[in-house]
């Protein structure tokens, strides 16, 4: 996982390129760009239109040039619709407010809080740096190669506070960049804007404390890993969410948060669903596999239940500890494929059913495991040990 995961997830979720275009440098719709922007706003929109095919359409019979000749302000609906499907990190947008046209830059610079205090601190740092930066950085395109800016962006997203950056001809750590360069700039910028010194110091001190402890991203990762040592995924996520909510309600910035203990949210056992306790990391085999090999694997790993899938990856059978004991007594009888020995009459359950129902089913049938299915597909397994 990246420290700033939404970038990777968003890039992947709206990637409309055919696989063969991935290799010929066709840009994804979510991108940082390949060079500094040049020319006019019109050039920016031309690049967007020529670089990406239309993804959405709508009914619009308005001629924008005719509207302009009549003294009206055109809404440029088609342009705005297309522009809304191309996601550069800094995106130029056209809009109309109170009848007046404007151009704005959508600049996605503020990460999630996780508290209001943290969010304001993020904004104060950004605005302060922009207003307090030395004049030599006004023409950033002459000071920094675009490829360095791009690698800095992805390093920050991937590695968070562990990142290193190219800055003013040097390779430096995130801590050094923030403490020695950006925070002094931010203080200067905020003071120059007339921000009260006590406010500037209060919020920038939050940034400084985060550098020494952890930010929201690192706290989340450490908390999640701690909870996963004791809890399964759904419970870990529920407790993590509860802990974050508690921290937000108390109003302390994230650098002061403790890691979750595990008792922040108690789940009612009577309301548990199968998906909350099932094992999703399940060793499976295919019905054409060697019986001897799979039974050996069960012996090596002390596995009591192996679901069997067909070539379409549908659940078709099950091997159990009973089969393994029979094999250990007489190995010569197990030379064919698994489909010759597997159990075909299966009791299964779906992920949304209650664990109470799973327990009743296992007890009534005298079995120790239930494959969990979605349609014909295996998505997990629940055993008496889980219950």
Q: Would you give an account of this structure?
A:
- The structure is a single chain.
- This protein is about 45% helix and about 15% strand.
- With about 375 residues, the chain is of the alpha/beta class.
- The chain has a three-stranded mixed β-sheet. The protein has a three-stranded mixed β-sheet with strand order 10-11-12, with no helix packed on it. Strands 1-2 form a two-stranded parallel sheet.
- The protein is extended.
- The model has no long low-confidence stretch (mean pLDDT about 90).
Which percent bin holds the helix content?
Answer: 40-55%
**Low-confidence runs:** none
> Number of helical segments?
14
SS elements, strand count: 12
How would you classify the helix and strand content by structural class?
alpha/beta
Can you write the helix and strand succession as a string? Answer: HEHHHEEEHHHEEHHHHEHEEHEHEE
Radius of gyration, in Å, reads 29 Å
Looking across the biggest beta sheet, what order are the strands in? 7-8-9
Summed over residues and divided by their number, the pLDDT gives a mean of 90
């Amino acid at each position: 996982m990246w420290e700033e995961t939404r970038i990777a997830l968003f890039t992947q979720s709206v990637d409309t390129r055919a696989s063969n275009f991935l290799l010929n440098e066709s840009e994804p719709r979510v991108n940082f760009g390949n060079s500094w922007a040049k020319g006019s706003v019109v050039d920016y929109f031309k690049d967007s239109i020529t670089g990406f095919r239309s993804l959405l359409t709508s009914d619009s019979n308005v001629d924008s040039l005719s509207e302009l000749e009549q003294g009206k302000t055109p809404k440029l609906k088609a342009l705005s619709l297309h522009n809304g499907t191309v996601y550069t990190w800094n995106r130029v947008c056209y809009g109309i407010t109170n009848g007046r046209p404007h151009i704005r830059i959508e600049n996605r610079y503020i990460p999630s809080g996780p508290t209001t205090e943290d969010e304001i601190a993020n904004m104060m740092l950004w605005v302060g740096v922009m207003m307090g930066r030395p004049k030599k950085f006004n023409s950033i395109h002459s000071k920094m190669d675009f490829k360095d800016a791009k690698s800095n962006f992805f390093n920050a997203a991937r590695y968070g506070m562990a990142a290193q950056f190219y800055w003013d001809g040097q390779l430096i750590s995130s801590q050094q960049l923030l403490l020695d360069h950006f925070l002094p700039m931010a203080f200067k910028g905020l003071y120059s804007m007339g921000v009260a010194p006590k406010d500037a110091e209060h919020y920038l001190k939050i940034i400084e404390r985060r550098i020494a402890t952890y930010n929201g991203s690192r706290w989340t990762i450490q908390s999640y890993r701690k909870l996963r040592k004791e809890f399964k995924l759904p419970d870990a996520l529920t407790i993590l969410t509860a802990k974050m909510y508690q921290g937000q309600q108390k109003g302390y910035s994230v650098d002061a948060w403790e890691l979750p203990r595990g008792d922040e949210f108690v789940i009612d056992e009577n309301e548990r669903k199968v998906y909350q306790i099932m094992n999703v990391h399940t060793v499976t085999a295919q019905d054409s596999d060697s019986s001897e090999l799979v039974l050996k694997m069960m012996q090596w790993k002390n596995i009591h239940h192996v679901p069997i899938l067909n070539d379409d990856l549908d659940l078709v059978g099950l091997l159990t500890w009973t089969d393994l004991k029979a094999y250990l007594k007489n190995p010569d009888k197990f030379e064919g494929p698994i489909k010759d020995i597997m159990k075909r009459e299966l009791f299964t359950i779906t992920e949304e059913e209650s664990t109470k129902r799973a327990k009743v089913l296992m007890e009534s049938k005298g079995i120790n495991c239930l494959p969990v299915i979605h349609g014909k597909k295996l998505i997990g397994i629940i055993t008496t040990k889980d219950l």
